[in-house]
Amino acid sequence: MAMFERIESIYVPVIDLQASINWYQQHLGLKLLSQEKTTAQFSVYDGITKLTLIETMNFKPIRYINEQHKAPYFNFHILNLKLTYEELESAGVKLSSISENEYLHSFEIIDPNGNWLGVCYEKESSPYYKPESEQHPLLDRVGAVFIPVRDLQKSLDFYEKALGLTLYHHWGGGADLGVNSKDNLITLFQINDGGVETLAEVGRSYFSFYSADLDVTRSSLEQKGIASTAAVEQDSLAYCRLTDPDGHGLLVISGVKKVVVVN
């Protein structure tokens, strides 16, 4: 049995919640699932990972989790590069230029708060390629969460062997691990200059794992020698944190029935 069922949500800070809700609905086509005083949660077409907006007092926009490698915090997956880019551009959405590597084309959406949101279109050479579709949503799903690491093998041992994620692709300088699916990915990439900014330095966790049974998950972690914080119960949910080899604090939640944001 897998330790986690999925990446539960991506967290994006905003200045004005209602204005941001309107923009994400109107310009990105996301469906609003729930809203509370300072948070709003969206589904991304038929993807299992949600996107949560958080109105914050000490606002700091997200850009790249690592500037040198121009790696975003996360990316959206799309099914048609040309049409999606043109549709977003014609709607007045601020976009970066399109870049590419061996496996994909990518660009960034810049929201009204100054957040940079990654977007990727997989080439036929990619292990995650899907045929292009003219009948497509703007954003198909959350594609991957990016995590910079100092020692790739050490991090692979942690995420694959200790946390039970599935290794799908290793390209030397990084690796993709799935949370029960190739459509639900954690992407690790090697930083050779030692410049890895931990999530403690970034601020709040920018994504969360979902566990069906937090007690069982914490017990499994303990058996593998991985410490986690005590479980905290809050309304209809419970959560804990653990730390990876680079000091990244990882949020694990369980029992989700409404918007979940844990500082």
From TrEMBL:
Domain VOC, residue spans: 6-122, 141-255
Name listed for the protein in its UniProt record: VOC domain-containing protein
InterPro entries, per database record: Glyas_Bleomycin-R_OHBP_Dase, Glyas_Fos-R_dOase_dom, VOC_core
